[in-house]
Design brief:
308 residues; alpha/beta; Rossmann fold; N-(1-d-carboxylethyl)-l-norvaline Dehydrogenase, domain 2; 2 domains; 10 helices; globular; binds ketopantoate
């Protein structure tokens, strides 16, 4: 039996993962509100993995003020986080927890600059979700979610942690708590650094990366990422990273990656937070990351083409 939770989830943006969180909240009796970033309709319908549709009928009005029990969920792209944190800053109680859920790195620093005192939490999920149109999202694959606390939080509130874990576990299950969430984020970064640009550039689904033509590139990217990770204090061999990439590509074989979707729809991608971040870290340490640089430049060229 599920017990009632106090507090609401204020979910920002109209992205696929945010909509998935909203559907999970509704199914599990957690008060929630979906707040699109611009004047767009919020997601209204979620097509479940098994085909059943959920109408997001219990979306509360967007909160004017959040309480100490509420959680601000930011399932946004890394480059959207600073503006979103700024827009919500004055609506937060000093003890409102803020959860970041994005691909790549750099989001924590962007939000921390705006919210220096708030308790920030980080999560990464391998659930797949795809926006079908302005108001519909499809849950395309079951995954798991890893959650942890920002390493620079000032003091910790065990009750807040427990509330967040409980709420997220109901919305994006299964959720595991990680003492060092940065390691999980680095591992996810390695996966995204390979799958996202390769699928976007070759216009393929994730599963097609199993094809022999991609194996050399995958090895080379993993080699570079492994070296950069080691400098950050996380030792994972290129072979281990490659296995991780292959596992995720197989588990999400039918999905188009988020970068593929962004490129296909002429939207800015997350390449700065993924391969761009790896390049920046490598430059600081004098590590050669020519494959990441090649992929980064290719994706940037596609972005510029659309922007122009
Ligand atoms: O996170 C993803 C993404 O598309 O951004 C993966 C894991 C690659 C699944 O598509």
């Amino acid at each position: 039996m599920t017990h009632p939770v106090t507090g609401r989830l204020q979910i920002v943006g109209s992205g696929a993962i945010g909509s998935l969180v909203a559907a999970g909240a509704q199914a599990n009796h957690i008060p929630f509100s979906l707040a699109p970033r611009h004047a767009r309709p919020a997601t209204q319908r979620l097509l479940g993995y098994g085909g059943a549709a959920t109408l997001l009928g219990s979306n509360l009005p967007v909160a004017d003020k959040l309480t100490a029990q509420d959680i601000l969920v930011l399932p946004l792209k890394a480059h959207q986080l600073a503006d979103a944190a700024q827009a919500w800053k004055d609506k937060l109680h000093p003890e409102t927890a803020v959860l970041l859920l994005h691909n790549g790195m750099g989001g924590l620093e962007a939000v921390r600059a705006v919210l220096p005192e708030h308790a920030l939490y980080l999560a990464t999920t391998s659930h797949g979700a795809l926006r079908l149109n302005a108001t519909e999202v499809k849950h395309t694959g079951f995954g798991r979610t890893m959650l942890g606390e920002a390493p620079d939080n000032k003091g910790t509130d065990p009750i807040q942690k427990e509330r967040l874990l409980e709420m997220l576990s109901r919305c994006l299950a299964p959720v595991t708590w990680h003492q060092d969430i940065m390691e999980a984020l680095w591992l996810k970064l390695a996966v995204n650094a390979v799958i996202n640009p390769l699928t976007a550039l070759h216009d393929i689904r994730n599963g097609e990366l199993d094809n022999p033509q991609f194996q050399g590139h995958i090895c080379d990217i993993c080699q570079e990422v492994s070296q950069v990770m080691a400098q950050a204090g996380y030792q994972h061999s290129p072979a281990v990273l490659k296995e991780q990439v292959k596992k995720v590509a197989r588990q999400t074989a039918q999905n188009y990656s988020s970068m593929h979707q962004d490129v296909a729809n002429g939207r800015p991608t997350e390449v700065d937070a993924i391969n761009g971040f790896i390049i920046k870290q490598a430059q600081k340490k004098g590590i050669d990351v020519s494959i990441n640089t090649f992929l980064y430049n290719k994706i940037k060229a596609l972005e510029t083409r659309y922007a122009g």
